[in-house]
């Protein structure tokens, strides 16, 4: 009997193979360095968010000032102020895109801070797989590809042990 599983053809010869899974979210949350990384990212995010809010506040103040002084301004002065507001709005959009956009500074910093931790966890996973002679190890947190998991095949605790972390 052969089975089609997620686009992979599994035949009889895999019966002797050993499979398992880990929960990478669980492992990350248990690692003491993860909290430090999260704290650093939150501090950066708060700082950048404050800068974005300051830009938005400047724009609001410029608009309010323009509205209050509108009757006193010549057409040329009015247009200059409108243009200054547009430039400040462009600056705010550019800042938000540069910092929080796709592949922005926040995303890049997240990758930079998480990469060493992910490498440490991957090395521990590699050692556990070799120790238990696992042919395949799934990540439970990686997506909806696992619809059932038998806890006896969960190797997350062994990875924690390999990392020297007590649960």
UniProtKB/TrEMBL annotation:
Sample GO molecular function, one term: unfolded protein binding
InterPro entries given in the database record: Chaperone_Skp, Skp_dom_sf
BP GO annotations: protein stabilization
Pfam families found in the cross-reference section: OmpH
Keyword line: Coiled coil, Signal
Family: Belongs to the Skp family.
Protein name: Outer membrane protein H
Species of the source: Indibacter alkaliphilus (strain CCUG 57479 / KCTC 22604 / LW1)
């Amino acid at each position: 009997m052969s089975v089609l599983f997620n686009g992979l053809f599994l035949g009889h010869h895999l019966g002797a193979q050993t499979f398992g899974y880990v929960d990478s979210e669980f492992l990350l949350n248990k690692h003491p360095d993860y909290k430090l990384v999260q704290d650093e990212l939150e501090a950066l995010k708060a700082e950048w968010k404050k800068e974005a809010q300051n830009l938005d506040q400047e724009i609001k103040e410029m608009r309010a000032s323009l509205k209050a002084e509108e009757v006193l301004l010549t057409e040329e002065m009015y247009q200059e102020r409108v243009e200054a507001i547009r430039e400040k709005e462009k600056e705010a959009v550019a800042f938000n895109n540069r910092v929080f956009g796709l592949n922005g500074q926040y995303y890049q910093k997240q990758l930079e801070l998480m990469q060493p931790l992910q490498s440490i966890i991957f090395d521990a996973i590699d050692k556990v797989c070799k120790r238990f002679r696992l042919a395949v190890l799934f990540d439970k947190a990686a997506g909806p590809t696992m619809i059932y998991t038998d806890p006896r095949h969960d190797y997350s605790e062994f990875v924690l042990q390999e990392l020297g972390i007590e649960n």
